[in-house]
Amino acid sequence: xxxxxxxxxxxxxxxxxxxxxxxxxxxxxxxxxxxxxxxxxxxxxxxxxxxxxxxxxxxxxxxxxxxxxxxxxxxxxxxxxxxxxxxxxxxxxxxxxxxxxxxxxxxxxxxxx
Amino acid sequence: xxxxxxxxxxxxxxxxxxxxxxxxxxxxxxxxxxxxxxxxxxxxxxxxxxxxxxxxxxxxxxxxxxxxxxxxxxxxxxxxxxxxxxxxxxxxxxxxxxxxxxxxxxxxxxxxxxx
Lengths: 113, 115
Description:
The complex is a heterodimer of chains A (113) and B (115). Chain A starts with a strand and ends with a strand. Chain A has strands spanning 4-5, 10-14, 19-25, 32-38, 45-51, 56-59, 62-67, 72-77, 86-94, 97-103, 107-112. Chain A is mainly beta and 113 residues long. Chain B has strands at 4-7, 10-13, 19-25, 31-37, 43-50, 53-57, 64-70, 73-78, 87-94, 105-106, 110-114. Chain B is globular. With 115 residues, chain B is an all-beta fold. In chain B, a hairpin with a 2-residue loop joins strand 5 and strand 6. Chain B starts with a strand and ends with a strand. Classes of the chains: A mainly beta (113), B mainly beta (115).
């Protein structure tokens, strides 16, 4: 039972354009969401997060949007750069169990020149 | 100066063997975790320790036993290794200072291959 889903295993975007990575969740108790970035042979690194009291959080080129009614969040990267090429994991947690992060399966982003 | 370090990075072993993966964090965090990333790239939590106390113990075989000698270390011992244990195992830590502080710092992963 996969509570956090990233339905696109890969995405290819031209440098300078916008990258949009999507994530859906099923558990309505989730109230905190995170995006992690992972390079090959390295552990995931935290990128950006959003709590359910917001619908948007922005940090430089990275913006996360949350649509609670649709149980959907997305990560926008603008402009995309070749160094953004990595696997991006969406993760979620519920405030009643903050130690437990549930991860999606990841989306591989490739930014080409 | 690695924040979360795991050793070894690669581990190849035969079925039936017992092996350990070590993890250390120098961030002063209270909570440490073990995650398993399977062949489908699904990252799933296995264990969570807070101040040396087991908090989460997901449905993993009891051949897997975490050991936390102090809050900076969380080692994973696996008995009687099976082919299906082959995966990348990630250690992580977090400050755990409230419901909005669940950002975790991950180690580089240990690729375990059971042959």
